[in-house]
Amino acid sequence: MKRRPPVWLLASGVAMAALALLPALYLVVRASEADADTWRLLLRDRTWGLLWRTLGLAVAVTVCAAAVSLPLAWLTARTDLPWRRVWTVLLCVPLALPTFVSGYVLLAAFGTGGALEEPLSRWGLPVPPVYGFPGALLALTVSTYPYFLLALRAGLLSQDPAWLEGARSLGLTPARAFWRVTVPLLRPAFASGALLVGLYVLSDFGAVALVQYDAFSRAIYVQYEGAYDRTYAALLGLALVVVTVAVLVLEVRLRGKAGYHRSAKGAARAMSPVRLGRWRVPALLLCGVVVALGVGLPVGVLLFWGVRGLAGPEVTVLGPALNSVLASVLGAVASVLGALPLAFLAVRYPGRLSVAMERAAYGGYALPPIVLALSLVFLGVQVLPFLYGTLAMLVLAYLVRFLPQGVGVVRSTLLQLNPHLPEAAASLGQPPSGVFRRVTMPLLRPGLLAGGALVFLTAMKELPATLLLAPIGFDTLATRVWSATAEGRFAEAALPALVLMAVSTLGVGLLVSQEGGSAPG
Amino acid sequence: MKRLLLLTLSLSLSSSALAAETLTVYSGRNEKLVGPLFKKFTEKTGIEVKVRYGETPQLAATLLEEGAKTPADVFFAQDAGGLGAMANAGRLQALPKETLDKVDARFRSPQGMWVGTSGRARTVAYNTKKVKAADLPKSILGFTDAKWKGRLGWAPTNASFQAFVTALRLLKGEEAATQWLKGMQANSPRVYKNNAAIIEALSRGEIDAGFVNHYYLYAAKKDKSELPVANHFVEAGDPGALVNVAGVGILKETKKADAARKLAAYLLEPEAQAYFSQETFEYPLVSGVKSAAALPELSKVGSPALDLSKLDDLRGTVKLLQDTGVL
To answer: How large is the ipTM?
Structure first.
């Protein structure tokens, strides 16, 4: 049933894809200035070494984050786990903490002479490694697993219970039914989570720099920071783009063409929650450990810093907090709206072009954020001078940066939505706009909310684009934290960082409370 | 009615005249450190200052991307390298002679494109519980001794460290610089992101000594005065005693050159120089202003005789750092 997409849908999809490809285009412009020497620099052994180290880290973090998130997503979406919504919110919070802060927190807690190093070793408990590969793995897993968690939860919440009931009625035990039905159906959610986590790791600079792991993005920063060499940095950036393309193609191949929506007749119902029984305690323990690492530890360290600085100069946070929320909400709305046409085209009108456009959304995602920010400076000054230096420019930057997060989640939700439902509504006399508003949108809600939450959380901590593209004087909580830590004034970093976490918690809490629908309880 | 209209008109005219006196500054220096100075400047001159704060290299890259269309009038950079990069790209205009002449020739651009506003000395910070001052080498070159194995920290991605390596290359030659870096590598120093992270690691006792700029220690001691960390100044003339500057340059394209020159001049007035000395613990560069009591005299720090504008050969330094496997 190959149909042609409506023109407006195609047009908005093309616009979004073009926008997302800008950073890569910018790199081509800059790289074209490279001389033979610079190219030779790129092709030496060290570049390959960096590439392997970075890819290795990306794969390891992706696997660990998926392994942590699957049980957490299931517990918070499908079971009678006590305080499910509270756990859901707390489990998402680490996403809002800038990774350079997570790095500092890790060192302050478990590093030599750190606050927890001595007590842990006194009780004979293992002290988590903080440096090199293990440190980077720990820091990045803790700060990225919510990408999986949100995608998997959205997947679980919109999954049709009929699948699982069918499997159970055919005699599968609950455990086998879970592995053979629930998990395979989550494949799109896994794929979107893996892309977000893996590509994020490729782009991360804050954490790898602090735990002293030499990765690709660090090499790119070195060129800007030390050598003021935009050309060589652009070549390194293009190398990352090539890797990204390879990952995206690979992911399409692996994903296959299976259908994920319900095909049976009748309406989908809410699923009754699984009773945990005696598994309740271990389940709570698991949630507790992850929240302790991702939220408890940073809050503890930040409080420790903050108490030290209580006598110090006062820090204003209200203005920056409002700015952060304003820019992040606008960024979240823009990214989810921008993601809709791309996800719709890819799912409802599959074909080379629509898939390529959806993939294009990831164009700049693996690039270190400074590259993306500079590409938008270039775009803003050359093409959109009337936007340059305004809030709209910042929101545009967030849209380009976070579009993949919207696309990933919306797409995986859309895949589980039976196309016959909107068709049935249309046959019952609903105009297309009515079908969209009354049938498609309500069914997409978990996905849209999850995508919005994701973008909101990550936009709250965004730094390079905010520093370079926000209106002058537009302070956010993240720029406050950065400003204090850059000069080693950790005491002054504590309050804005804590407020950043608190506001993010509130934001996600609000979204989770809106989840409704098939969420039990 | 007519009168009201006239009044409104004149008001709007005067406010737009005021608006013309708004300078846009890109500041690679921290808001906490220099924000109050901009306020004082506005109080004094009536010229409003809008500031984009960021990291010096990233703002330099931004200025290069923006090209002639930049909204910035003034670039206030944390180190001479950033200013040198802008001057080399032909993006700065010459400063008035009387402003330049307030500062010793070694702390300004020979072509007069930028001027240093405060000095920042390289030092060796050490943990006083683990190291005796007498055991610290007189020269930075002494740290390649095997007894320092596993005890040192550095920040090779940091601009101020790279400026120091450039000085080392210029003063002692490529070969000596290569040997020093290899010798340091053999002592497996811990790699930190920046000076602040080194001071933090020193206070936890993770390392015994680290290469930093002198004022980070005083900033850290503001939070926690009993930190067991102190600064060690290597002997005068040693590359490890390099004094780099933070400084200011005026963008070539600015339409507000007069106001921009006023700002540059203000930063060298006694009031601003005293501010750097007292509040940021940096060295004032205009004679007659005292350093903060805790610091040795700038003349005693003995920065090696070196033209700071030559520190712009950062490409060569980054390449050397990469060839020796430091980066």
So the answer is: 0.87
